From TrEMBL:
The lineage of its organism: Eukaryota, Sar, Stramenopiles, Ochrophyta, Bacillariophyta. Pfam families: HATPase_c_3 (PF13589), HSP90 (PF00183). ATP binds at residues 135, 139, 193, 198, 206, 213-214, 314, 464. NCBIfam families: PRK05218.1 (NF003555). Keywords: ATP-binding, Chaperone, Mitochondrion, Nucleotide-binding, Transit peptide. Residues 29-42 have a biased composition (Low complexity). Belongs to the heat shock protein 90 family. Residues 90-99, 789-804 have a biased composition (Acidic residues). It comes from Cyclostephanos tholiformis. InterPro entries: HATPase_C_sf, Heat_shock_protein_90_CS, HSP90_C, Hsp90_fam, Hsp90_N, Ribosomal_Su5_D2-typ_SF. CDD domains: HATPase_Hsp90-like. This is Uncharacterized protein.
């Protein structure tokens, strides 16, 4: 009964066109009649109980194969017994089948080049062994799809086979389904379908020839039939001429079974009716056929007894290698089925239990899919338990036929320190997984999106693990990206609160990453960004479009300032000129924001300009030529002239002294009118935020934080009206040492304001010296004041004494 256990799930399920190895030399052998007799007994026993397993599943192919002769001598001996009329030993138990027609075994060899191809398919074509199950299930699905098409086309598929001596033991309307059984005891895995099946001739053609796809040939025949229908030469029923449900194309998937099995048995019976007078001389084409191979260059064919009940379809039995025993474990097989074949269009049963219970809802009309189905499907594809923030379900015909169902989760995991997320969208073709978490169909910044993309037109590699047309994949990638950006734009326009408070708060980093990396979508993505501005309230975000709409007509640029916080941005010396001219400035608070602005460069024809640039347009936002503004300007000029300030000549001399004194750190010093309360700023400097980020990376890579990335020479702009500058101009002549210390501190203050001072501790000694100078100066000043007060007292006393003496003397004189 070992033989029976090994083949107990054999059902005919067809079309396992290997989609593979050419015929070769043949050798006919007669199998012993005794073997057939014992097989008949086992068959009857199982037929009696076949319906008790699962009321929803059709009967399996209740056929056990006779023991195969292992040597030529054994075959000859059995032939002699049969010729002498001696009943086989095992046949004594079955008197009803004494006249059973014995099967003949035909041994064949693959051709030399076919053996080489088989070796490549088995050892080199696939990157992951587990895909063998995907390939075999896909073949089974194709067999079922072919039967469905053939029935629709009226191709003579039988439900009750009248070829079996009028016994009416046909299929009885077996449902279209796939059954998989694991047997750890015998280390076998059986894949069975109730599809179209194969004849002996088709098995030689499809399984005996690598890279010949029976599915592809079937689709071609359906195309020809469709053309005949359109031309009016064929009146068959309405049938899809393109076979959109057919998966196989290359004719190699079947042979992936040899990656895990050292022997493969295929039993099949065709569902196509063949009349006895149809001119077909091959009587074997009317019965079930057994194909056997060890994948080493040889295979054999045997015709099963036609008088024994055999259902339509194909059964593939994998005798697993010892080191591949995990594929006879039910849990392992179930995980693989759910990974690759969970959306196959026909029911899949594993040891009697339905596996593929989730619908491929991306193929349904988006308007008809209920929210509950979206919720369940989202949890399946994302492996998360929240509800999706937004759903994007669509179809498109160009540049490819694409059906996509994408979800935006309510949160992402990168913010929790769990590392960079993998892509979240998987690529399917005809509901079969091609590439899980595909990195090619969406740009990197879209990795937070979960879902599936299915394309029937996408050309796949032979292993069906990658697309082989990178240009076409690129077009699909662009089309999907445009759809996603359009969806986000619609959300932003129709529900700004949801976009701002839920989506942008959670995913703004990904949009900014896209602006920096995805050049094709840069301008579209920039419209989705939101920022605070100098004229708005804290937390109030506006888009670049809204900022531009508020700009005065004469403004040609978009200004932004990078600072650690809004408070520091408002206190920045760079804001003094913008506040005075009433220019609105965008505030950015992180290195990525600064990097976004530097990469974006322009928006809607306007240049993005950092507030620390020297060439900024600081004319008042209103009409500077108006009478009112002219009066204000005159008042300011009068106010400036009333205060101490450097003349043009003095300012020029001071700038030259400042640049010479700090020649190792300053490349240029000039005056500016942009400052009002600050003595100086540096302009045209590198980004402080980016510098901090680069220093952090340098430190993490083992670099020295003290010596890495020296600062370049800076351009300093001074305010000639500031008291510190005016005082320093005097000190450079009276106390040059103190003036130099003050100049160094002025430069460091400018670096702090620009965010470029790497380590503030470097200026502590100088600050201490300056404070000491202030204290000494204060003490000296107090001492001087005290001395002057004492002198006054002494002087006042001296005057009184003199007056007294003089008075006495005068009195004496008098």
């Amino acid at each position: 009964m070992v033989e029976e256990n090994n083949y107990r799930s054999a059902v005919v399920g067809g079309g396992h066109a290997a989609d593979g190895g050419g015929g070769g030399r043949r050798r006919l052998q007669s199998s012993p009649s005794s073997s057939m007799s014992s097989g008949s007994i086992a068959i009857r026993h199982r037929i009696h109980h076949r319906r008790s397993f699962d009321c929803h599943r059709p009967s399996m192919m209740n056929t056990t194969m006779a023991q195969r002769s292992s040597s030529t001598d054994a075959t000859t001996s059995n032939d002699d017994e049969r010729d002498n009329g001696k009943p086989a030993e095992d046949g004594d138990e079955d008197d009803d089948n004494d006249d059973a027609v014995p099967r003949e075994r035909e041994d064949m060899e693959f051709q030399a080049e076919t053996r080489q191809l088989l070796d490549i398919v088995t050892h080199s074509l696939y990157t992951d062994r587990e895909v063998f199950l995907r390939e075999l299930v896909s073949n089974a699905s194709d067999a079922l799809e072919k039967l469905r098409h053939s029935r629709a086309a009226g191709s003579g598929c039988h439900d009750d086979d009248d070829d079996y001596d009028g016994s009416n033991v046909g299929d009885g309307g077996s449902p279209l389904e796939i059954r998989i059984e694991t047997d750890e005891a015998s280390n076998t895995l059986t894949i069975t379908d109730t599809g179209i099946g194969m004849t002996r001739t088709e098995m030689i053609s499809n399984l005996g020839t690598i890279a010949r796809s029976g599915s592809k040939a079937f689709v071609e025949s359906m195309r020809v039939r469709g053309e005949a229908q359109r031309s009016g030469t064929d009146a068959s029923g309405d049938v899809d001429p393109f076979g959109r449900g057919i998966i196989g194309k290359f004719g190699v998937g079947f042979y992936s079974g040899f990656m895990v099995a050292d022997k493969v048995d295929v039993r099949s019976r065709s569902a196509i009716k063949r009349r006895k007078d149809d001119g077909n001389d091959d009587d074997d084409d009317r019965g079930a056929v057994l194909w056997e191979s060890t994948g080493t260059g040889r295979y054999s064919l045997s015709t099963l007894d036609r008088n024994v009940r055999q259902d339509r379809g194909t059964s593939v039995v994998l005798h697993l290698k010892p080191d591949m025993a995990q594929y006879s474990d039910e849990r392992t097989v179930e995980a693989i089925l759910k990974k690759y074949s969970n959306f196959v269009g026909f029911p899949i049963y594993l040891n009697g239990n339905r596996v593929n219970t989730i619908e491929a809802i991306w193929l349904q009309d988006p308007k008809t899919v209920e929210e509950s189905k979206h919720s369940d499907f989202y949890k399946y594809v994302s492996h998360m338990y929240d509800e999706p923030l937004s759903t994007l379900h669509f179809r498109m015909d160009a540049p490819l036929d694409i059906k996509a169902l994408l979800y935006i989760p309510s949160f992402h995991q990168e913010k929790y320190g769990m590392g960079r997320m993998d892509p979240g969208v998987s690529l399917y073709s005809r509901k079969v997984l091609v590439e899980p978490k595909s990195p090619d169909i969406l740009p990197e910044w879209c990795r937070f999106i979960k879902g599936v993309v299915d394309s029937e037109d996408l050309p796949l590699s032979i292993s069906r693990e990658k697309s082989q047309d990178s240009a076409l994949v690129g077009k699909m990638r662009k089309a999907l990206t445009r759809k996603i950006i359009s969806h986000l734009s619609t959300m932003m326009r129709k529900d700004i609160e949801k976009y701002r408070d839920e989506f942008y708060k959670e995913y703004s980093f990904f949009l900014k990453e896209g602006v920096c990396q995805d050049f094709d979508s840069q301008q579209s993505l920039s419209k989705l960004l939101l920022f605070e501005t100098s004229k708005g309230m804290a937390g109030e975000l506006v888009s670049l479009d809204e900022y531009v709409s508020r700009c005065p007509p004469e403004s040609k640029d978009i200004y932004y300032l990078c600072a650690p916080s809004r408070e520091l941005a408002l206190l920045s010396p760079y804001m003094e000129g913008f506040s005075k001219s009433k220019r609105e400035v965008i505030f950015v608070y992180s290195a990525i924001d600064d990097f976004v602005m530097a990469n974006l460069k322009t928006f809607e024809g306007r240049e993005l300009v950092s507030a620390d640039r020297s060439e900024v347009d600081l004319h008042p936002a209103n009409d500077v030529d108006g009478d009112a503004n002219k009066g204000k300007k005159d008042e300011k000029d009068d106010d400036t002239s009333s205060r101490k300030s450097l003349s043009t000549a003095e300012a020029t001399e001071f700038c030259a002294w400042f640049q010479t004194t700090l020649s190792s750190k300053v490349s240029q010093c000039k005056t500016t009118k942009r400052l009002s309360s600050s003595p100086a700023v540096i302009t045209d400097n590198e980004s402080g935020a980016l510098r901090r980020m680069m220093r952090m990376v340098e430190t993490q890579e083992g670099g020295s934080s003290s010596s890495a990335m020296p600062l370049p020479k800076q351009t300093v702009e001074i305010n000639p009206n500031h008291e510190i500058i005016v005082g320093m101009n005097s000190l450079k002549d009276t106390d040059p040492m103190l003036a130099k210390v003050l100049a160094e501190q002025i430069l460091d203050n400018c670096l702090v304001a620009a965010g470029l001072l790497d380590d503030g501790r470097s200026m502590l000694p100088r600050l201490n010296d300056l404070m000491l100078c202030v204290v000494k100066s204060s003490v000296d000043m107090d001492k001087g004041i005290q001395e002057r007060e004492e002198e006054v007292v002494i002087n006042e006393s001296g005057v009184q004494e003199d007056e007294t003496i003089d008075g006495k003397d005068k009195n004496r004189r008098d």
